[in-house]
């Protein structure tokens, strides 16, 4: 078991459910439909990666040392991608313009892609028994 992955997965899952409920009940009337859809994209990507963290956390076939880079790429990617979307979408109700951080969304997405790619390489290199 990889405790860091399991804890991160649980935290990402918990906050995704809270933010998803907040979007559905609290933001629906105060932000545009387009912004709400973007916010929901951030929640969706966060929950997908919460599941990924939980799955990786339960794997015994890969050593933790081999997963450290993958962990940080995925963790940072989720934070940059989803949180930037949350701020960009809900900026109007916060009374702030977060357009200056818009570059963080594709940067976070790129880190997620790299994390998945390295995970794929690790799986390809697994020896069959």
Q: Would you kindly provide a brief summary of this structure?
A:
With 129 residues, the chain is mostly helical. It contains four helices and no strands. It has helices spanning 3-27, 33-58, 64-94, 104-124.
Q: Poorly predicted ranges (pLDDT <50, ≥5 residues)?
A: none
Residue share in β-strands: under 5%
Rg of Cα set: 16 Å
Total separate domains: 1
Biggest sheet layout: none
End-to-end CA span: 20 Å
H/E element string?
HHHH
Helix amount, in percent?
A: over 70%
Describe this structure in words.
It comes from Christiangramia sabulilitoris. This is DUF423 domain-containing protein. Keywords: Membrane, Transmembrane, Transmembrane helix. The chain crosses the membrane at residues 47-64, 71-94, 100-121. The chain is mainly alpha-helical and 129 residues long. It has one domain. Helices cover 80% and strands 0% of the residues. It is built from four helices and no strands. It has helices at 3-27, 33-58, 64-94, 104-124. Helix 1 (3-27) packs antiparallel against helix 2, helix 2 (33-58) runs antiparallel to helix 3 and helix 3 (64-94) runs antiparallel to helix 4. The protein is elongated, with a radius of gyration of 16 Å. The model has no long low-confidence stretch (mean pLDDT 92).
């Amino acid at each position: 078991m990889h405790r860091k992955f399991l804890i991160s997965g649980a935290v990402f899952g918990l906050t995704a459910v809270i933010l998803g409920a907040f979007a559905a009940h609290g933001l629906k009337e105060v932000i545009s439909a387009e912004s709400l859809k973007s916010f929901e994209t951030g929640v969706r990507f966060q929950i997908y990666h919460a599941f990924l963290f939980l799955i990786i956390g339960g794997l015994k076939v890969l050593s933790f040392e081999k997963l450290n880079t993958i962990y940080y790429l995925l963790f940072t990617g989720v934070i940059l991608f989803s949180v930037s979307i949350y701020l960009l979408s809900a900026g109007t109700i916060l009374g702030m313009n977060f357009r200056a951080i818009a570059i963080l969304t594709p940067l976070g997405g790129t880190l997620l892609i790299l994390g998945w790619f390295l995970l794929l390489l690790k799986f390809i290199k697994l020896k069959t028994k």
